[in-house]
Design goal:
Blueprint (H helix, E strand, L loop, with lengths): L1 H20 L3 H13 L9 H8 L8 H13 L17 H5 L7 H17 L1 H4 L10 H13 L14 H20 L5 H17 L5 H24 L3 H18 L2 H17 L3 H15 L5 H17 L3 H17 L15 H14 L3 H14 L4 H17 L3 H14 L6 H12 L8 H14 L4
Length: 462
Amino acid sequence: MNGDTGASRAGAALQRLIAEAGCSNAKLAGRVNDLGARQGVLTRYTKASVTHWVQGMVPRGRAPEFIAAALSEFLGRAVTPADAGYTSEPEKPVVSRAIAYRDDVGETLHTLAEFGSTDVSRRSLLGAVPFLAAGLLDPQRKWLLWLLEDEDRGARLAAVADGGPVEQVQAMIGMFDEMDNRFGGGSVRASIVQYLSSTVVPMLQRLDTPAGQRRQLFTAGAKLAAMAGWSSYDSAEYGLAQRYMVQGLRLCAEGGDRVLGGQILAGLSHLSTSLGHPGEGVALARAGIATARSAGSPMGLMRLHAMAARGYAALGRARETTAALKNADGALNASRGVEQESPWVRFLDHHYLEAESALCHRDLGEAAATERLASASVTANADRRRRQAISRSVLATSQLQQARLDEALTSAGHALDQLGGVHSERSVQALRDFRARLGAHRGEPLVREFERRALPVLGPAA
């Protein structure tokens, strides 16, 4: 009887939230399916499923997380699974602390040390770490407040290391970056997190470091935290990615590097848009543009305009997408060369903008432009397997949109081959997007063969 009472309470709580949101059961089910699919969790919920939930049936797996995320969007405020009536194992306090942008940087360092140590050595103790789009509002607000207060100090590019611990940390950043580019973030994630939490955080906790060196160390620590976020993203650990990037943003304020701050916001924008929250992705990109506009790094600004374009394209807003891409191209043309740019953005070039533009045109259904840009990206990124895999998947989609099924499957097959040695969920997402568009062709023998080959890498199709 107690179980029945608990189920009834859960159903009543969910029903109240649905009524407050004013959404239909079918709309809620569809959004839950979409949010899950973007994280590789394939479900086929319908309006009847929501009726069953309201009647007290508890959905399995991560569905309560996606129900809460969908309701958060509809209501414009944070909703947790517990708010919807679903009880679960209590979240570890450090998981909650890691999503917050703290005023006291000492608290940030303590959180990073505990979070990173638990992540590496006792990962199971963290439990499920969900991505929470609503949790990004406060970090954005606090960062922009810091930006306003820091205005009088002027824009600063990253300082060059002058030996000692700063030079050592920057050398490690370079090594991790090379491994990430060659093999994907998933292959190097644990090493980044361990070095950040066990070596760099203790350096930052020392109060006797000279001020200039301490500022450089905070900037390097921010870069490592952002890298921990990106590599978590590549490992499909989206909640971890969000938390490391937020903590990196706080460290970046302490170091005062606006270029890097803009790049961390670009990463959060990318994560949000890819997980089905493009409105939040646009807002984060715009916060980054405000950060980088006077920071002396046109290439950093280019990337942020490209991230805004990605969000607008996912929303189907073609006019805003075109304007954002035009702004990105203008920033690209304003750059005076790699040596005049911050070290944090020297990996960017016109090929990067081509690849991001291809994704924008894909989402807008503009197949010819998608094919032209994706083909150029494939050619230009022969030594970057992750970018190759993504661009080949986008190329396959453009060919499918133009009813060239055989060519599309060939391109997708090449993308699948390249995923064999790359641990990158971003690459997997792009190929899943292509596979999802094959629905009308699933009776074709070549399609069935592709899906058979793709199953071990992409998981089951919806």
